């Protein structure tokens, strides 16, 4: 049986970046090589409003896609 994780969307500014996590709207999201960054990198995120698509599974928020919010 395959369980499909529901995707959630958030808009805000990235904070508290580490090598595996970052914050957005007070929530900590994990990211990895599978996370898609479109028009932004984690080296140029300062003061950028982003749109984040994420999943929530077993108590962990996982960033799926991060892009500049238009």
The residue ranges in which pLDDT falls below 50 over 5 or more consecutive positions are: none
The string of secondary-structure elements, in order, is EEEEEE
Approximate helicity band: under 10%
Provide the β-strand percentage band. over 45%
- Tell the overall outline: globular
Individual helix count: 0
Radius of gyration: 12 Å
Largest sheet: 6 strands, mixed
> Kindly, what is the distance between the CA atoms of the first and last residues, rounded to a whole number of angstroms?
38 Å
The helix/strand class is: mainly beta
Mean pLDDT over the full residue set? 91
Number of strands: 6
Walk me through the structure:
- This protein is mainly β.
- It is 0% helix and 51% strand.
- The chain has no helices and 6 strands.
- Strands 1, 2, 3, 4, 5 and 6 form a 6-stranded mixed beta sheet that branches.
- It starts with 6 loop residues before the first strand and ends with a strand.
- The mean pLDDT is 91.
């Amino acid at each position: 049986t395959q369980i499909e994780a529901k995707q959630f969307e958030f808009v805000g500014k990235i904070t508290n970046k580490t090598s595996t996590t970052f914050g957005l709207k007070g929530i900590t999201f994990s990211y990895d090589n599978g996370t898609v960054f479109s028009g932004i990198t984690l080296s140029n995120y300062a003061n950028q409003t982003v749109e984040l698509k994420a999943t929530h599974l077993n108590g962990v928020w996982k960033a799926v896609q991060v892009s500049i919010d238009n």
